[in-house]
Amino acid sequence: MTMQITAAITRDVGRPLEITTLELDDLRPDEVQVRLVATGVCHTDALVRDGILPGSLPVVLGHEGAGVVTAVGARVESVAVGDHVVLGFNSCGVCAQCTAGHPAYCASFPPLNFGGRRQDGSTSLSEAGASVGSHFFGQSSFASFANVAARSVAKVSASVPLELVGPLGCGITTGAGTVLNVLKPAPGSSIVIFGTGAVGDSALLAAVVAECSTIIMVDVVPARLALATELGATHVIDSRHEDAVARVHEITGVGAHYAIDTTGRPGVFRQMVDSLAPQGFAALVGAAAPGTEATVDIGAFLVNSPTVTAVIEGDAVPQTFIPYLVELYEAGRFPFDRLIKTYAFGDINQAFADSESGLTIKPVVVF
């Protein structure tokens, strides 16, 4: 049956989110209804709010939800009422990438995650009879309840606090998955990570799990670099005052075996490439506005012959990778809780502001 819910709606480009009451429609056979307990605030939400990435407005954003299953559709077998779940990205499940175990590269990823509606064109949300965009990343978790695509749902242990685990749905999985699923650094290897936000610090934590012996973090915020040291970085570089590329080569001798750019900034992308050792392996994970371009030195690129790739959502399968990160956390090996600050749902715009200013690494709003 339809129900009234509380949600944070994005009405206009660049405007603050508005807390309002919306109508949630009937659950579909391939959906799961979730009572949200908390949800992370991600840079991607801000990019859509500000019109940098596409999105149909008005819409309810949010794609790092965590909550409790309250109902399941007739075709859903993966979870049951009462299960604790984390909500990740959506995928079709039938294309070549999905069936090969790479759902983040689903052929239908853009419409399923940014389209603001179900595949049949309907939305689950409305206001005074007018449709409101829903199913952002299959979920639209800036709401007290959501009808969620089943492929966005990952069951997690009931022993871990739901107030913590929402960011595993996107940002933290992106950083950790880039290291553990894509780069796969050998024990004793070196890695440099540009950016100490939630994605960069999650990559750092994963590099510790992978037993990298040299972990270099680059940023311009001293407090974040200090935290990176506490989390396991062996070296930190304040790129306001130091030449990051020169320092990486000085620390490693030949350049880093692995590198990650979490910023999506052209200059940082170039630094990532130039920091690599011969035949090094680098990954871009930072989003940028369409049309953003970066350059490389072709001669040096040929001589060093690095591998440079891009990674979406950590190339992870949410239903297996998110529970794995929870297991690492509960074993004391992946303390991602150090990155999180919680906010009341009514303070969601402050959470966005604190994320953008760098005051908070990973904001989580709690219902």
Automatic annotation (TrEMBL):
It comes from the Bacteria. Residues 14-366 form the Enoyl reductase (ER) domain. It holds the Pfam family ADH_zinc_N. InterPro entries: ADH-like_C, ADH-like_N, ADH_Zn_CS, ER, GroES-like_sf, NAD(P)-bd_dom_sf. The keyword Endoplasmic reticulum does not apply. SUPFAM superfamilies: GroES-like (SSF50129), NAD(P)-binding Rossmann-fold domains (SSF51735). Its cofactor is Zn(2+). Keywords: Metal-binding, Oxidoreductase, Zinc. Belongs to the zinc-containing alcohol dehydrogenase family. This is NAD(P)-dependent alcohol dehydrogenase. The lineage of its organism: Bacteria, Bacillati, Actinomycetota, Actinomycetes, Micrococcales.
